[in-house]
Amino acid sequence: MKSASNLILVGPMGAGKSSIGRRLAARFGLPFVDADREIECATGAAIPLIFELAGEAGFREREHEVLARLCRSGPSVIATGGGAVLRADNRRLLSEHGFVVHLDVDPESQLRRLANDRARPLLQRPDRREVLQRLGEERAPLYADVADLRFETGRGSVRQAAERLA
Ligand code: S3P
Asked: For residues 36 and 46, what is the distance between their CA atoms, to the nearest angstrom?
């Protein structure tokens, strides 16, 4: 049962959730919120530092608290982090509080867009391609479970994908 009219973007790192979210928000006249930036504001630390000090589990706790607050204070366009769907309580929260769009991306476009990334702790290792592939396989059914709509953003730039969607 949908109780708030958020537009919620889920999907893997590099799918373009923040850029596309900003554009959709402007198009619909809604505020845009990025869950990762809200976690950093609430914690007073950048995401790599949160992972370093509190581990991934500590990050996921903060992520859950922020998602719960954002979902309940809409209507907004909310860009979530790629792992927001890992917890069943998050999946319930997201699907109960908005229309959920799964922005998906093929592995080659994802790698290209994230080639110079230094801000995502899960990718700061030499086997980035394998990590992205494993996360993709593990998470695909979770995105499908929560999504009302799936949209492919690969093949070209995020900007081109945003123009097709909004
Ligand atoms: C993560 C994705 C990141 C961020 C954190 C963990 C993940 O967000 O939440 O680094 O587990 O996939 P983006 O999807 O916005 O890059």
From this structure: 9
- Residue 98 marked in a binding site: no
Residue 22: which CATH number? 3.40.50.300
Q: Are 2 and 148 in contact (CB under 8 A)?
A: no
| ipTM (interface predicted TM) | 0.99
Residue 42 counted as an annotated binding residue: no
Separation of CA 13 and ligand 1 centre (Å)? 6
d(CA 110, CA 14): 5
Residue at 1 is within a domain: no
> Which residue matches tokens 């922020």?
66
pLDDT tens, 136-164? 999 999 999 999 999 999 888 888 888 88
**Which tens digits make up the pLDDT trace of 77-111?**
999 999 999 999 999 999 999 999 999 999 999 99
Amino acid 74 reads G
